[in-house]
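To: structure subgroup
Subject: Chain for Friday's discussion

All,

I'm putting the inputs and outputs inline so they're searchable in the archive.
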Amino acid sequence: MTRRRLRLGTRLALGLGALALAVFAVVGTVMARSMQEYLEHRLDASMASTQVSLKKDFAKNGTVKGKAYGWYSIVYDVRDGTATPKNREDLPADADELAAVALEVDGRAPVYRTGYLHGDGTYRLRGCVVSDGVVLVSAAPMNDITTTVRQLVIVEVAAFLLALIAFVVIGRAVLRRGLQPLSDMARTAHDITSHDLTDSARLPVRAEGGNGGVEVEELRTAFNTMLDHIDTSLAARTAAEQRLRRFIADASHELRTPLTSIRGYADLFRYAAANAPREREAHLEKLRSEAARMSVLLDDLLLLARLDSAEVETPLRIADGDLAALAREAADAFRAAHPGHPLTVTVPDEPVRSAFDPLRLRQVVDNLLTNAAVHTPAGTAVSVSVWVREGSVVLRVADTGPGIPAADRSRIFDRFYRVDDSRRRDRGGSGLGLAVVHSLVAAHGGTVELTSRPGSTAFTVTLPR
């Protein structure tokens, strides 16, 4: 069975209580000791003044008063290391301490000592010289001092205990309030561990609040920053998984169509009549067409995969080239393939030099031009423009078609995404053209932007010069 550990606030309060107890003990001891020394000093002063009067009485009368107010005053003859009392009637029952003090007096300074007289209690002893060989020893009871110091100690103990209890209780409450954000963060962490993050891109809870000190606030900020980072990572992972699932589904769909066609035409070719060569040739042509279409699709998929792993193997062959000349060549090919779309080319007369892969950038321009031709009615004007802007080269392909709906613009560069979701072959290809454009431009370190409204759609490619 494991022992339950105390909470941090309780342990801190108990630790501070132990520290306070040690401080109180030191302070109480110093106070009691100081009070005792002060009272003893006062008693010593009182004994000194009393002995002055006694010495006058002894000089005048040859003797001193006996016991008064519990005090003892004894006159000793000190000869040859022996102290003989002169007023024996005033001797206490236990006079050894007084005789010892008389023997210690050497005439230079009075002798003080605290001793215990059996049957009487604790006394303060003072010895002084009266005349040659005569010593006066007085003993004053210390009961009042002991009682006073004892009462002081009792008051200190009671006051310190009450202060200690209040300190621990109030301190625990203050610490608990100050450490409440830590408890909130612990509950948040427990809630997160119990939350299913498999398909979630957002953590359900946060450690909020404004209590606690600077350190707790820093910890809360770091904790929330960590949660935001986890949120971002989960969102990216979820989005990547969704794209992967959509990519697999769309790729399966796109590959299944030509494979089904190839299979069907292969069966037709197998069972075609031997005396019908035209029919067999038509079937072969369909087989070649579907195989070519599937080959283009696989090439695009392979290119996208290589672009995704560009950190390992770059698919680009960068060289210095003229972007204006590349745009003219793409325009000439477009006019030959799509004579129903008038094309305008606006490029500078001088070369627009930049570093790019001529083959892949030509593929970008061809895809953009083909996209404009496929998704606009016949007779729609298309334009290609090239210019230099602030250290970058810009290529824009625009058309005057119906435009792209606002709901589709954010996903227009997604793989296999098509504005026309019916997937009819007369309205476009596999939906990889713009995805290839976006990936190739990004691999060149550039950007591609879409602006569209009814009557104007433009794709603007910006590359570093």
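Points worth raising on Friday:
Confidence is low (pLDDT under 50) at residues 421-427.
The first helix runs from residue 8 to 61.

D.
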